[in-house]
Structure formats: C-alpha cells, structure tokens
C-alpha cells in the first residue's frame, strides 16, 4: 500500500494525535505562566530541563529534513513524470498542477507580507515571543548574499556541502535536475533508483512518526519555556498566527471559483452547489482521500466528463495540494514576522521557489509529517529558525481544515479545467 493509498482511518488517527499535541501546548503554556510562583532556583531548573528536552525533540525533527526533502522530491517528480506520460488527460492534469502550485507559492508570500503589515502582532506581544525561545536552539541558515551571488549559488558546486550547510534552494535545484534526468534513462534503472529513494523516504517517515509519537512531550517542553517568558502573550500570538494562516487558506480557496468558471467548464452556481458535500467531508475528516468519492459525484453533477474526472481527481488527490505552497510559505514568512526578522529579497525569492518546487508531485502524507517536511525547508531557505514550528504544529489542526477544504475545491476545479483543455482542440 502506497502513502497515497492509505485508508481514511489514518486521518482519524492523525487527528487524535493532533488533539494530544494541542492539549500539551495549552498545559505547557499554563504551566509556564504559573512557574513564576515557584522559587527562582526551582523555576530556573525547570526551564533548563524544558529547554533541554525541547531542543532534543527539535533536533530529532530537524535531522530528517534534508534527506526527506531529497527522497520525496525524487519520488514525487518521477511519479509525476510517469503520470504525465500516461495519456493526454493525465499530462494536462500534471501541467496544470505545476502551474497552480507555482502561482500558489507566490500568492502565499505576497498576502502574508500584506496581512502582517496591515494587522501586525502587537509590539509588546512580539517582543515577548521573540525572547520566549531563548532556552531552545534557534540556529538558522545565514543570510543569503546579494542578487548576483544569489543566482550564482542556485547551482551548487558541491551538493554534499549544500546539504551539510542547509542550503536548501541549491539542493532542491540539484534534486529536481537529478529526478528529471531519471526520466531519460532506461526503465529498469529508473525503477531501481526510484524504489531506493522511495524506501529511504518510507524509512524516514517511520522515524518522523516515532518522533511525532512523543510530540506531546516536546510540545509541552517548548510551550513551558514560551509560557514562562511570554505569559498570556503566547496565546495572543498563537491566535494571531491561526487567523493569518487560515485567512491565506480561505483566499486560496476562493480563487478556485473564478478559476473553474473562467478556465474550466462549470458555472459558478453549479460549482458552489456541487462542492457542498465534498467540502463537508473535508471539514469533518481533514482528508482529501476521504473526500474523493464525494468529489467524483460532485464532478459528475457539474457535467464534467467521467473519463476526465476518473483520471484527474485520483491524480489530484495523490499529487496536488493547491493550498500547500501558499500556506507553507505563509507559515515561514509568519515565523519571520513573529521573531522580528527581516529576510532579504533573495531569501524571499528562495523560500517562495522552494515552496513551489516542494509541492510538485507532493505525495499524500499525514498532516503533522507534511507540516514539518514541507515548511522546514522553506524556513531554512528564508533564513529563519524552525524551532517555532515545534509549537505551531500543535495548532495546525485549525488551519489544516482550511487546507483540506481548499485542496478539495481546487481538485474539482482542476478536473473542470482539464475537461475543457482536452475538449477544446477537438471543437476547432
């Protein structure tokens, strides 16, 4: 059974783990706020232990990021290339997935900058949060060089050094080129290499699952340090984060309606009515796979041909995450806002590019795994630490609802667009 074929019950288990992490976050923040009532020696010792545990947990997450990025990109791009060669409908589907994911990454960066500028975190809250992770490792990649050196550095002279230094964009470029090169070699050799990377990716996902199994402990430790330093401001900061990131998800979702009407074959009214059932399933399960039967039925009610929807929608469920690039980039940019960092233009371009490329052929993963594996490389490219992700993953279950609803909406819009693109030539 592949990752994309796992039953919908996995989504329920993921939801259950997310609740544990959320409870640990709240309890940790409250415990940190109450730690001021302890003696100075006791409080200092508790903070040291929490910082130590939190750093170990973050390091356990970080150690998988670079190899997982390489493995997932190689497998995802290879499978996308195979899908594109499987026929005209599949090829058009993959092409539109690349176009929409690229636009989504750019869309995520610009509104996030605008929203955090129009509705910034209050200075007092920001100042408290910026110092809240002082007991936890906050190492990030160094600032990127000027524009000329930045573009020179996109092609790595030494890919091993790039991986060692956490230079995610050059590593991503090399991996994409390598994965594309695999499509030009004989099938036997290609399958052997892809199977190797698939196995590596599966093993790394098991490691991440082990790390996430103790997420409540790591989240509690991180939350304790934040609650101790920031107090009630931590709740305000997390609430602000949820609103901003959810707003990005809503905006991306709304784009699907005019996209289906203009580039597709479905009128807005029929599109809106038809999506009620798939969106309801998406809200309740946070799983695109669980929403697939409802999406197939909805596409038929909209007049999308079955031979199109029966090919495009399964490909979309396996490979397409329309909200992913926008919301993943938005999270990294929000962390920069949270910590008061000012990324350079080069870093913002790098982060947006990584967000787009990481989404090409993205495989279906549990929410928490996808959150870490997708956003950590973007954060590294942006030059911000990934320590805050250890906290933010605990409240991701709220933005994840908007992620899934947006993905389901764009999946059906994609079927409508492909339906039109493969029928128009025959009408000429």
Q: First CA to last CA: what distance?
A: 43 Å
How much beta, percentage-wise?
under 5%
For the secondary structure, the number of strands is 0
Mean pLDDT: 82
Largest sheet: none
N to C succession of SSEs: HHHHHHHHHHHHHHHHHHHH
Shape: globular
- Supply the number of helical segments: 20
C-alpha-based Rg, rounded: 22 Å
The percent range for helix content is over 70%
Low-confidence runs: 1-13, 141-147
Helix/sheet category: mainly alpha
Give me a quick take on this structure.
With 428 residues, this protein is mainly alpha-helical. The protein has helices at 9-34, 40-62, 65-84, 88-118, 123-130, 147-152, 159-165, 168-182, 187-213, 215-230, 233-262, 268-274, 276-285, 288-301, 306-319, 323-338, 345-357, 367-382, 387-392, 397-427.
Describe the structure.
This protein is mainly alpha-helical and 428 residues long. The chain has 20 helices and no strands. Helix 4 crosses helix 15 (306-319). It is globular and about 75 Å long. The model is unreliable at 1-13 and 141-147 (pLDDT under 50).
Keywords:
single chain, 428 residues, mainly alpha, 20 helices, disordered N terminus
Blueprint (SSEs and pairs):
Layout: H1 9-34, H2 40-62, H3 65-84, H4 88-118, H5 123-130, H6 147-152, H7 159-165, H8 168-182, H9 187-213, H10 215-230, H11 233-262, H12 268-274, H13 276-285, H14 288-301, H15 306-319, H16 323-338, H17 345-357, H18 367-382, H19 387-392, H20 397-427
Helix pairs in contact: 1-10, 2-10, 3-4, 3-8, 3-9, 3-18, 4-11, 4-15, 4-16, 4-17, 4-20, 5-11, 8-17, 11-16, 11-20, 13-14, 13-20, 14-15, 14-20, 15-20, 16-17, 16-18, 17-18
